[in-house]
Write a structure and sequence with these properties.
The protein is mainly beta. It has one helix at 2-30; strands spanning 52-63, 66-72, 77-84, 86-87, 97-106, 109-117, 120-122, 127-134, 137-144, 149-154, 160-171, 182-191, 196-201, 204-209, 215-227, 230-247, 250-268. 11% of the residues lie in helices and 58% in strands.
């Protein structure tokens, strides 16, 4: 069922860009320009035909409040903290950034590999509602997160490794150049994560890189031509991943639903 939902989401995300471009390509294939003479040829500028594209960007991410669950079987602790608020701290070292490279076998359709370095920090001073078992006893009340969880963060990145399908639609065409003045893009991606989970639970600190769970993204953006193959880009992304990281004698789990705004440069070869 989840795979069907992801497939439907990808189709809905890509269709608005993909279908008009596909229709235009089909019309061009079936109705090529007519020659006016035996040696006539079409010298008009061709639309955007860049096969390879690379991009580097900075930006920020806002992760919506979510439940934080910690489970420590040997301590008989299993707690759920409701509506935990997260910070992104995108411009504090290490910075939020992303990099990707893609190949477009068709003018309007391509495939990419993308890496997104996003961060998550839970404020330990926030007051939250907690319910569950604490050292074998029932606990249900409001408290400051730091009473039990002094630190929960993914500060060296949730590190999303995504494979994207991309649809793009060039806008306009300069009379004296082969590159489009602007390009609209939308992409859907899916892939693994390598989070760096950091935690301090009741004074017990632990941090590590580990293989995380799958993440997916949907994004829409635009690029404006600057010089030769260089473009400036802006983009909105939505990402979703449920992370489960190791903590002292157990694990912590949180659903990370994040809204990203990014800006950077791309180069079309």
């Amino acid at each position: 069922m989840r795979i069907k939902r992801l497939a439907l989401t990808a189709w809905l995300a890509l269709a608005p860009t993909f279908l008009p471009a596909f229709a235009q390509a089909t019309r061009d294939a079936h109705h090529p320009p007519e020659a006016t003479g035996p040696l006539a040829r079409d010298d008009s500028p061709r639309p955007e035909r860049s096969r390879w594209v690379i991009a580097l960007y900075l930006g920020g991410a806002h992760t919506t409040p979510s439940r934080l669950r910690i489970r420590q079987p040997t301590l008989k602790t299993e707690l759920t903290f409701d509506e935990v608020r997260f910070q992104g701290r995108s411009f504090d070292p290490p910075l939020y950034y992303g990099v990707r490279g893609g190949y477009f076998p068709l003018r309007f359709l391509g495939f990419e590999a993308e890496f997104v370095h996003m961060k998550v920090y839970a404020d330990p001073q926030q007051r939250v509602r907690v319910a569950g078992l604490y050292r074998g006893a029932r606990l249900e009340r409001e408290l400051t997160l730091a009473e039990i969880v002094q630190r929960y963060a993914i500060s060296h990145g949730a590190n999303l490794l995504l494979l994207n399908i991309v649809a793009r639609a060039p806008l306009g065409q300069r009379a004296d150049a082969r590159r489009s003045p602007a390009v609209v893009t939308t992409r859907f991606g899916l892939g693994p994560t390598i989070p760096h989970t950091e935690s301090t639970i009741e004074g017990h600190a632990q941090e590590q890189y580990e293989w995380g769970r799958l993440a997916w993204q949907w994004a829409v953006g635009g690029e404006v031509h600057l010089w030769r193959g260089l473009y400036v880009l802006g983009e909105y992304k939505f990402t979703r991943t449920r992370q489960r990281g190791a903590i002292f004698t157990g694990h912590a789990e949180a659903l990370l639903r994040s809204h990203h705004g990014v800006f950077g440069l791309s180069y079309h070869f």
